[in-house]
Amino acid sequence: MRVRAVAAAACLLAGCSRAPKSAPPPAPGQPGAMAFDMSGLTLDRKRVRVSDYRGKTLVLNVFSTWCVPCREEFPDIVALARRKKGQPFAVLALAAQSPRSDIRKFAAQYRPPFPIVIPDKDPGDAYALSAVPVTFVISPDGRIARRFDGPAPKAEWGRL
Fold it and tell me: Residues 104-118: what's their mean pLDDT?
């Protein structure tokens, strides 16, 4: 009996317990983390926030107009938005490091059925970005479910 008590005390002092230790919280911008509530203005100067889309699955694409992979990926995102129309699903594009005049030309070329937003703050800081494109799939509760650094594989769009 005394051996058990000593062993139990040793475990407690050493940090042993039956309860599993919780994992550290996910890093900002990574799956499992809450999506940063970016805000900005659309090309027609309407204020938009990521939190406006709570309750829907949100595809958040961060792109630059001068980025070749961004331009190659954008038609697939436009097609996804059109395919998901009428469902609890939305797409929002954040134009990073691009002049407004170039963003207007980009929008005229691709004619997305979703807003292109000029963010108030650099999305690179909020979402820990090092390059574009980066696309996040944000769950209806506001958590990042998926993150694609670089163009998302076309097969992924079919899974959404």
Answer: 97
